[in-house]
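ok, trying the design again with the full structure, not the truncated one.
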């Protein structure tokens, strides 16, 4: 199963990808997570990417495509993968087409997660992530048992640099201008599934699994 999740920031891509990883036993490939790892390790890629991320802008396409190319060649991608947060621009989508065709691969499904802006802003400003294990919480719908402490590993939770109000608006603008057109690219291939992503985590999960079983 080769799956792509497209949606605005806060659309639930990362959360749903985690369930799909378990369900299909394939890896989640999140360009956002890969970039944050590089930032935390202070690699040269991370140091370059950081300024774009903090400003809510996209990291240049060639950086992302280089990262993805290496990742798709890894052994654990043999049986499929879930692309989360990539491609985010038309050049990235075309770059992915090229990579897939070189590997004789094709995508099985592109899930587009649709959420109203008001809900996105509420979800992102209440999102907290664990510094250590990466577990993501929502202070309203999925709070930690002890405030600001991860249930899983006991480490501190933090608000992402790019989840502050001004940056959220900028990321939404970028999504509508640069990423939403990517859905048109896949509509032409007839592999798009549009999902209403307003509901609870469980509801959205069931909708996705139902669509994928068709
Ligand atoms: P995310 O965790 O997917 O919301 O990504 C966080 C930030 O990383 C984005 O706001 C971008 O700055 C950067 N980023 C992640 N994925 C991509 C991508 N495919 N293309 C360009 N920038 C990206």
């Amino acid at each position: 199963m080769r799956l792509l999740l497209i949606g605005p920031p806060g659309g639930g891509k990362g959360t749903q990808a985690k369930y799909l990883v378990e369900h299909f036993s394939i890896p989640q490939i999140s360009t956002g997570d890969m970039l944050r790892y590089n930032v935390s390790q202070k690699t040269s890629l991370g140091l370059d990417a950081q300024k774009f991320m903090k400003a809510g802008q996209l990291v240049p396409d060639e950086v992302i495509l280089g990262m993805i190319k290496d990742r798709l060649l890894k052994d654990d991608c043999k049986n499929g993968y879930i692309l989360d947060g990539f491609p985010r621009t038309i050049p990235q989508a075309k770059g992915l087409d090229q990579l897939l065709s070189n590997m004789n691969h094709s995508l099985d499904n592109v899930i587009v997660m649709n959420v109203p802006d008001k809900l996105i802003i509420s979800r992102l400003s209440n999102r907290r992530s664990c510094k250590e294990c990466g577990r993501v919480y929502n202070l309203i719908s999925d709070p930690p048992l002890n405030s600001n402490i991860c249930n899983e590993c006991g480490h501190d939770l933090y608000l992402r640099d790019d989840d502050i109000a001004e940056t959220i608006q900028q990321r939404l603008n970028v999504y509508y201008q640069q990423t939403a057109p990517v859905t048109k690219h896949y509509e032409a291939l007839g592999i798009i599934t549009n999902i209403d992503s307003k509901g609870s985590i469980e509801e959205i999960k069931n909708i996705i699994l139902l669509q994928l079983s068709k």
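Keeping the full-length input from now on. Residues 9, 31-32, 35, 52-53, 56-59, 64, 85-86, 88, 92, 162, 171 surround adenosine monophosphate (CB under 6 Å).
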